[in-house]
């Protein structure tokens, strides 16, 4: 910038107003042609606003925002997070969309959020194996039986009916294994069950015939059902104490049963040993209330 | 059969009605359990315990319109009890994030299915990186679709707190996903 530039700037207003004298106009044009700085300035001040908006406006908006409110991303994120709750006003939605159209980072975040929430909804109802419902019905009918204190013959009836109904289904093999495990737990996971020689009985239960399992389950839960009434509190404590053991037993028994049914004897033997360990632990935890004086 | 009749029959002791109710809600209950314990077997056993509780408390749900929040409440309490009891025992192995990303579906699964499973694992991992309260709010609001008012009642928090937490929890989830897989734009153009 030199004195010529200063002189040129002094003429700028007159030029924009259209009132430049001929001599001055000649100087004004020739300096603008020769001087980059003044030519840019001229272009800037005389440009149409729409033309300017195309190229310069976004950067202009950024710099305006930068010196006024700071980046709007924080506010956009807050609206993004609140949007799925449906609490955004029409104006807020509009403002948010305006920001997303121009901010890559927030647009990415919006996309990720949308996809993550869709996946979260998918996770709401994961698939379960077909035996689950049966498992629940067994557990709740045991509850009912206990509630009624001794109405156990029905349990065996229903188990038998279930057995016949299920025998035709493809999942049957798997469920047989599972049923064997359920009996295991009924045998050794219920109070007062005579489980001193637990591992041997576990093996017998898994290998036993359906009829044997039905009878045994009915008998033993019947005995337990009759005697539970008076010691409910104690039983609840014991059940809580042994819950983890029973979970382990259930898992190992299930695996053992499945392996047996597939003729996979090595695996079955291994799982049964594990189940035996679980049973021993279960029995110990059932009898021992943790205070060393017990027993 | 609508839910009100189904519940009425369950309360009257109809086993078939109870079976139907279990079938209709078991996946949802399992989904809740899975957000508290990530181990499938453990979640399965826990789901069974939840149904035993539901069964014992059927009389406590008089209003069919409020069945879902009621069910979620029971499930949540059971999960929390379970975690409390489990504290004494070694926790189930948590899958590290990068390992979770490498786990893929069996070979025969079509690409789309593999992609879906990979996406689920990423979101599961991201969910478990959140704080307990944020994970619960996403579970209740975005997964189970409870109303904010229900959640406020359930968690015993002011509605405004639930609202702002729900918003923040979602952002945290999205950012945790981005930390695992990079921004969505990068994924789309890759
Ligand atoms: Zn100049
Ligand atoms: Zn932004």
Essential attributes:
heterodimer; A: 295 residues; mainly alpha; rod-shaped; disordered C terminus; B: 190 residues; Rna Polymerase Sigma Factor, Chain: A; Arc Repressor Mutant, subunit A; 2 domains; 10 helices; 75% helix; binds zinc ion
What's the structural blueprint in terms of helices and strands?
The complex is a heterodimer of chains A (about 300) and B (about 190).
Chain A: H1 3-17, H2 22-34, H3 36-46, H4 49-67, H5 73-82, H6 90-102, H7 104-123, H8 131-148, H9 153-166, H10 172-189, H11 198-207, H12 210-228, H13 232-261, H14 265-287
Chain B: H1 3-11, H2 15-36, H3 40-56, H4 67-86, H5 97-102, H6 111-129, H7 132-143, H8 148-155, H9 159-181, H10 184-189
The complex binds zinc ion (2 copies).
Please, could you describe this protein's structure?
The complex is a heterodimer of chains A (295) and B (190). By secondary structure, chain A is mainly alpha-helical. In chain A, 79% of the residues lie in helices and 0% in strands. In chain A, helix 6 crosses helix 7, helix 9 runs antiparallel to helix 12 and helix 13 packs antiparallel against helix 14. The longest helix of chain A has 30 residues. Chain B is globular, with a radius of gyration of 19 Å. Chains A and B meet through helix 5, helix 7, helix 8 and helix 13 of A and helix 2, helix 3, helix 6, helix 7 and helix 9 of B. The structure holds zinc ion (2 copies).
Return the structural class of chain A. Answer: mainly alpha
Q: Which CATH-level-2 architecture of the largest domain in chain B? A: Orthogonal Bundle
Unreliable spans of chain B:
95-106, 185-190
Query: Could you give a short account of the major beta sheet of chain B?
Result: none
For the record, the count of structural domains of chain B works out to 2
Unique bound compounds: zinc ion
Number of helical elements of chain A: 14
How can the largest sheet of chain A be summarized? none
């Amino acid at each position: 910038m030199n004195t010529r530039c200063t002189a040129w700037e002094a003429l700028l207003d007159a030029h924009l107003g259209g009132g430049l004298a001929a001599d001055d106009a000649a100087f004004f044009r020739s300096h603008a042609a020769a001087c980059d700085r003044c030519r840019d300035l001229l272009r800037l001040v005389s440009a149409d606003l729409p033309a300017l908006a195309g190229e310069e406006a976004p950067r202009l908006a950024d710099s305006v925002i930068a010196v006024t409110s700071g980046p709007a991303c924080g506010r956009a994120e807050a609206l993004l997070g609140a949007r799925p709750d449906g609490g955004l006003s029409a104006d807020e939605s509009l403002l948010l969309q305006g920001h997303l159209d121009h901010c890559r980072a927030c647009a990415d975040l919006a996309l990720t959020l949308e996809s993550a929430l869709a996946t979260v909804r998918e996770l709401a109802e994961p698939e379960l194996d077909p035996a689950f419902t049966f498992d629940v019905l067994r557990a709740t009918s045991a509850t009912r039986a206990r509630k009624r204190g001794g109405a156990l013959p029905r349990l065996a009836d229903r188990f038998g009916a279930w057995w016949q109904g299920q025998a035709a289904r493809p999942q049957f093999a798997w469920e047989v294994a599972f049923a064997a495990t359920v009996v295991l737990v009924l045998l050794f996971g219920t109070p007062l069950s005579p489980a001193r020689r637990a591992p041997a009985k576990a093996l017998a239960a898994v290998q036993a015939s359906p009829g044997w399992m039905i009878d045994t389950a009915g008998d033993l839960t019947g005995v337990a059902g009759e005697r539970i009434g008076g010691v409910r509190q104690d039983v609840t404590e014991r059940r809580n104490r042994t819950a983890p053991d029973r979970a382990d037993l259930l898992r190992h028994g299930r695996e053992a049963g499945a392996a047996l049914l597939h003729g996979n004897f090595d695996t079955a033997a291994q799982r049964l040993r594990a189940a035996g360990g679980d049973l021993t632990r279960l029995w110990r935890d059932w009898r021992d209330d943790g205070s060393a004086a017990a027993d | 059969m609508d839910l009100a009749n189904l519940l009425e029959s369950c309360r009257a002791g109809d086993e078939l009605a109870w079976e139907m109710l279990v079938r209709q809600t078991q996946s949802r209950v399992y989904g809740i359990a899975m957000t508290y314990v990530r181990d499938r077997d453990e979640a399965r056993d826990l789901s069974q315990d939840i149904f035993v509780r539901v069964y014992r408390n059927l009389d406590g749900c008089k209003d069919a319109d409020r069945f879902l929040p009621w069910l979620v409440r029971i499930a949540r309490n059971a999960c929390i009890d379970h975690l409390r009891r489990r504290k004494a025992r070694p926790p189930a192995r948590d899958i590290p994030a990068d390992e979770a990303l490498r786990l893929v579906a069996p070979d025969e699964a079509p690409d789309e299915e593999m992609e879906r499973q990979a996406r689920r694992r990423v979101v599961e991992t991201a969910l478990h990186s959140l704080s307990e309260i944020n994970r619960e709010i996403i579970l209740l609001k975005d997964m189970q679709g409870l109303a904010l008012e229900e959640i406020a009642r359930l968690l015993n928090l002011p509605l405004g707190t639930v609202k702002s937490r729900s918003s923040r929890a979602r952002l945290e989830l999205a950012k945790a996903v981005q930390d695992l897989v990079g921004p969505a734009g990068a994924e789309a153009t890759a």
